[in-house]
Amino acid sequence: MNKEESFTEYLKDLSSSRSTPGGGNAAARVNAMGCALMLMSLRIAVLKKTPEDDSAILLEKNLLELQERSMGLAEEDSSSFKGVMRAWKTGGQPLEEALRCSAEVSQKIAAAARELLQMIEGEEISKYKNIITDVGLALALARAAYEGGMMNTKINSAMLKNSSHKEKLISETEKDETEFRLTHGNLLEKINQYI
After folding, report:
1. Which domains, ranges and CATH numbers included, belong to the chain?
2. What pTM does this model have?
3. How far apart are CA 15 and CA 49, in angstroms?
């Protein structure tokens, strides 16, 4: 989906028999949607009441940047996966390089989701009690984006023949997953106190 394409057209593309856009593209867009929900929550719960709040203004700027970066990652994912499909025909080093590149894009998607999680974590949840379900859904979207990025990282790195690249990607993935899930669970508990 490009900027001119409607959401309905994007869903048709996503559900087509073509391989792109696929799960990585969707994961990145889900993260952008999480950013959008957190932006809405911030604007309603904080900036509407205190428009001069410097930390809220900075968070708004950071969320907008992350949202834009997530949309770019969606396109980067589709492009890298097309590279994998082209290289699949020849195999060898071109395929190895395409898989490594695709795994790294997937890691970037997971990292963007982690950034959204950290932005939510940095907020005083009680400020959002009247709009808490939107913050909760932003958190859920960050988790979905993260899981999508991590699954794609794992599948692409598992096919790598270069053991040092494979081991590096897998070890980074395992450590990061534990931290993400712990932070996500703690945040979900805080949010659920207001529901």
Report:
1. 18-192 (1.20.120.680)
2. 0.91
3. 42
